[in-house]
Structure formats: structure tokens, C-alpha cells
């Protein structure tokens, strides 16, 4: 038997096999170091995180704004009516399945994890004087920053450029290879640059793994905190068991494929998410949630630019970059596979429809969810306990503390575990689908290669349980996404060139034909008498 068959690489080229082996080897080395010397890895990643934000935080802020302007132009200009896959392509998924897959892969367990973690962290460690918004309470300001980072403009900056690039270049224009590097061929189509294409794919794989591994790691530590604090069980042991169960479900999803596996997992997770947040809204501090949501919403909308570019340059430290630049780096790493996956499931939808599914509808839902979660932990009777827990045990301890303070906390704990598990599963499903596709250059990669990527991601996520500080995982997406940001500029330009050419060559011709047909019926093709 061909030994490459085990890894799903029997039909792969040598450079594709090298891409797989190098990426897997580097990440396995990282995971082993994390298991053997967690303090060393922790210190190394935190040092890299601080360095990136100190010297390149400004770059993430400016790039994010530029991408926001670019995406808005592409979506609301004449190019917004271009259909992903071509004008005759029909949608592959129904409305609910489509929106469920877009939402669950795009927003993950961060709604719970950072929906608690960021607001109470800002209350505990507020921005330096002078305050970015004079007269605002620190609780409302903290929630307004959460809206900036995870609702708008955060969403509209980072996901659409990748979805546009994949949708326009890979599916609409068409390419021989399903790879990130294929998008470069729009502007650099020369076989002398094969090394550049290979480096781009390698950087994409590493950045994607960094973002997904961090999300899985955050989830693993929250599982451990909830299981230990809320239910009094052996936290690490039960978490390992939970991941083993998720691994079996993941392998079943791999076997079932995109239409039966990933789609159904996304639908189930969406239902669980709606149920969990409705339950929290009812049993939590409902009136306070409504009031702070409105107050923070006003601060957010009235100070969008101020909060988005807040850096506090005259103050010590990097408070603004520690939050905003971190989030933009996180979105950049996460957006690599989210945008490509969204383009994959959005074939048959227009660029404008995809924007609505990716930004407007989720943005409204995220605003409601973050209002509920943020209002819950910032409310009187919760805020003091959660900030104390944050200081002593990090974000996972703060989440567990808030759950314990809530009426019917054990029910809420179960719902949170199920929701986060669903997000882990759908993120893992979609991430390995894209990782394998990039490795093999195949839109429908084989299940064996996908399984190997899934095992690696789960292994790295489990490894993070051994890290002594929760914050160290912030470094994974931030550091690994930095080299890839230059490529973002290139693919944005390539997307514009592709849209321009396609509109001129395809849509303009089709619209001209329709105009002639409407005004000169005799020129329309005649149907056969037998039809």
C-alpha cells in the first residue's frame, strides 16, 4: 500500500506533501514543548505577543480600517450583484442551514468567553486617563468596547475580504487549484514564483491553525473551570473525556461530509445557542441587561471612530493595542478559514447577500448576545465577584463564578458547555475542511487528510490545559497572523481586479443581451414547437 494513503496524500504533489509535513511537524513540536515545558512556552508566547502589539499594533488598526472601506465599496457598488460561482449558479443550501453554518463557524465560543472576559477585564483594568469617552460609566464603556471589537466594525473589517477573494477568484473566476496562493495568480501569474505561492500557503496554514487552536484552547479551559467549579468534578479528567467524545463526533462528521455532518452540527449548535441566551436573559438580571445594553449601545454608536482608533499614546503601556490590535489580529487569523468557508457554502448567493449573511444578520444577533452576557456579569451582585475571580483565576474562573451566582446555575452551566462544545465541533469541522483543501488544492478533500488535521488541532487545544496562564493563548493568533497581513492587501487588490474583469466581460454582456431582448422581441431565440 502507498504509505501516503494513510495521510490522504496519495494523489498529492511533492510540494503539497512537503507543505503538510512541515506544518504538521512544526505544530507538533509546539504542542510537545507546551506539554513538556508549559512555563517556557507561556513566557515565550507572551513575550512575542507584547512585541507584536508594541511595534505593529498601529498596522493592524490601519489595515482594519482600509479593509472596511474596501469591503464597503465592493459590496455596495455595482460589483455587489456578482454571484459567487457564476450568474447561473443556484444556492446549495437552504436559508437556515446557510445562516447557521456562517454564524457557528464565524463567531465561535468567543461570544461566551470574551463576552464575559473583556467587559470585566476593562472594569478591573480601565483605560488610562483621560478616559476615551468623558462621562461614561466604566461598565457601559467596557460593553461599548466589546461592541466595537466583536460587532462593528470588527466583523466588517476582517471576514468580508477573505470571503470576497475566495468567492470571486476561486469560484467565480475559476482556478485550477483550491489554494490561497491561487489568488495571487491574478496579479503574479508566473511559474518563476512557485516558491512564493508555496510560502503563502504555508503561512496561511500556520495562521489558521494558530487562530483555531487558540479558540479550542480557550474553550478547553472554560470547560475545565465549569466542570470543576459548577459541578465539582475532576476538571482535567472530565475535560479530556469531553474532548474524546467531541473527537468521535468530529470523525463521524468527517465521514458524513459537508452536507450531512457540518450542516447538521451547525443547525444543532444554533438552536442550543438561542436557547442558552434566552434562558440567561430570563433568569439573569433582566432589567439591568436591557438598560446597560441601551446605554452602552449609545456610547458605541456615538463614538465608533474614537473607540476604534483609541491608543492612549501619552500613557504608559499599550492598553489600546492590548485590546483593539489583539482583536484585529485575532480576526485576521480566524478570517482566513472563515472567509474561505463562507465563500464555499455561499455559492449561488451574490456578494451583497453574502455580506448580509456574514455581517448584518450576525451583527444584530451578536449585539443582543453580548448585551445579555455583558449585562449579566456587569450587574450589581455579579461584578465584584467576577472581577475578583478574574484576578485570581482568569476568564474561565470568572465565567464559572458568574454561573454559580445565577439562579438555576447548574442548568446554565450545562447549556454553556453544550454551546461551547457545539462551537468547537463546528469550528473544527470547517477549519479542517479548509486546511485540507488548501493542502491538497481540492475543493472536496478526502476524509483521511481532514482527520489528521482534526487530530492535530484537538491535540494543541488539549495542550493548552497545561499552560499556567490563560492569557498566553492570546499570542497564538496575534503572532502567527502578522506575516499574513501583507498578503491581505494583495488579495484585496486581486479581488477588485477580478470583479472589474468579470463585470465587464460577463455581467455587462448579459445585461446588454437582456436589454436587446426586451426592446426587440424578434431578436430573442425562438423555442422549438415541441417544447
From TrEMBL:
Keywords: Cell membrane, Membrane, Transmembrane, Transmembrane helix, Transport. It is a multi-pass membrane protein. GO terms for cellular component: plasma membrane. The chain crosses the membrane at residues 18-36, 56-76, 96-117, 156-174, 195-218, 238-258, 270-294, 326-343, 355-379, 414-439, 451-470, 476-496. One of its GO terms (molecular function) is transmembrane transporter activity. It is found in: Cell membrane. Pfam families: BCCT. This is Choline-glycine betaine transporter. It comes from Halogranum amylolyticum.
Amino acid at each position: 500500500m502507498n504509505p501516503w494513503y494513510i495521510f490522504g496524500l496519495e494523489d498529492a504533489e511533492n510540494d503539497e506533501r512537503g507543505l503538510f509535513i512541515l506544518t504538521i511537524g512544526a505544530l507538533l513540536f509546539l504542542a510537545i514543548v507546551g506539554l513538556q515545558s508549559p512555563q517556557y512556552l507561556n513566557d515565550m508566547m507572551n513575550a512575542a505577543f507584547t512585541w507584536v502589539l508594541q511595534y505593529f499594533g498601529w498596522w493592524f488598526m490601519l489595515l482594519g480600517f482600509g479593509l472596511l472601506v474596501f469591503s464597503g465599496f465592493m459590496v455596495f457598488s455595482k460589483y455587489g450583484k456578482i454571484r459567487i460561482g457564476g450568474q447561473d449558479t443556484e444556492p446549495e443550501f437552504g436559508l437556515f442551514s446557510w445562516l447557521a453554518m456562517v454564524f457557528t463557524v464565524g463567531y465561535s465560543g468567543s461570544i461566551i468567553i470574551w463576552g464575559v472576559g473583556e467587559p470585566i477585564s476593562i472594569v478591573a483594568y480601565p483605560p488610562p486617563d483621560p478616559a476615551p469617552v468623558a462621562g461614561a460609566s466604566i461598565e457601559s464603556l467596557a460593553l461599548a468596547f466589546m461592541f466595537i471589537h466583536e460587532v462593528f466594525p470588527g466583523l466588517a473589517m476582517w471576514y468580508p475580504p477573505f470571503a470576497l477573494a475566495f468567492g470571486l477568484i476561486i469560484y467565480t473566476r475559476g482556478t485550477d487549484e483550491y489554494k490561497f496562493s491561487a489568488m495571487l495568480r491574478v496579479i503574479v501569474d508566473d511559474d518563476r514564483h512557485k516558491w512564493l505561492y508555496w510560502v503563502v500557503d504555508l503561512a496561511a496554514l500556520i495562521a489558521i491553525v494558530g487562530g483555531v487552536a487558540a479558540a479550542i484552547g480557550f474553550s478547553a479551559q472554560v470547560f475545565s473551570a465549569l466542570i470543576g467549579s459548577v459541578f465539582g468534578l475532576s476538571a482535567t479528567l472530565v475535560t479530556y473525556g469531553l474532548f474524546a467524545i467531541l473527537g468521535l463526533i468530529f470523525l463521524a462528521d468527517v465521514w458524513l461530509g459537508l452536507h450531512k455532518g457540518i450542516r447538521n452540527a451547525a443547525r444543532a449548535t444554533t438552536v442550543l445557542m438561542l436557547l442558552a441566551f434566552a434562558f440567561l436573559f430570563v433568569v439573569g438580571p433582566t432589567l439591568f441587561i436591557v438598560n446597560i445594553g441601551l446605554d452602552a449601545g449609545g456610547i458605541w454608536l456615538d463614538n465608533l471612530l474614537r473607540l476604534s482608533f483609541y491608543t492612549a499614546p501619552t500613557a504608559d503601556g499599550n492598553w489600546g493595542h492590548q485590546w483593539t490590535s489583539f482583536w484585529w489580529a485575532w480576526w485576521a487569523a480566524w478570517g482566513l478559514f472563515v472567509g474561505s468557508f463562507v465563500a464555499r457554502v455561499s455559492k449561488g448567493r451574490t456578494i451583497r447577500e453574502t455580506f448580509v449573511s456574514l455581517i448584518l444578520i450576525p451583527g444584530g444577533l451578536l449585539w443582543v448576545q453580548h448585551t445579555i452576557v455583558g449585562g449579566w456579569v456587569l450587574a450589581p451582585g455579579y461584578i465584584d465577584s467576577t472581577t475578583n475571580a478574574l484576578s485570581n483565576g482568569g476568564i474561565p474562573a470568572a465565567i464559572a463564578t458568574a454561573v454559580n451566582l445565577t439562579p438555576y446555575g447548574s442548568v446554565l452551566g450545562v447549556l454553556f458547555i453544550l454551546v461551547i462544545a457545539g462551537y468547537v465541533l463546528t469550528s473544527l469541522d470547517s477549519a479542517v475542511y479548509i486546511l485540507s483543501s488548501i493542502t491538497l488544492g481540492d475543493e472536496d478533500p478526502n476524509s483521511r487528510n481532514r482527520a489528521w488535521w482534526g487530530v492535530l488541532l484537538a491535540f494543541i487545544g488539549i495542550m493548552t490545559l497545561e499552560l499556567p496562564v490563560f492569557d498566553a493563548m492570546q499570542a497564538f493568533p496575534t503572532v502567527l497572523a502578522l506575516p499574513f497581513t501583507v498578503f491581505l492587501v494583495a488579495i484585496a487588490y486581486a479581488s477588485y481586479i477580478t470583479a472589474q474583469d468579470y463585470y465587464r466581460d460577463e455581467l455587462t454582456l448579459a445585461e446588454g443581451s437582456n436589454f436587446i431582448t426586451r426592446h426587440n422581441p424578434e431578436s430573442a431565440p425562438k423555442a422549438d414547437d415541441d417544447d
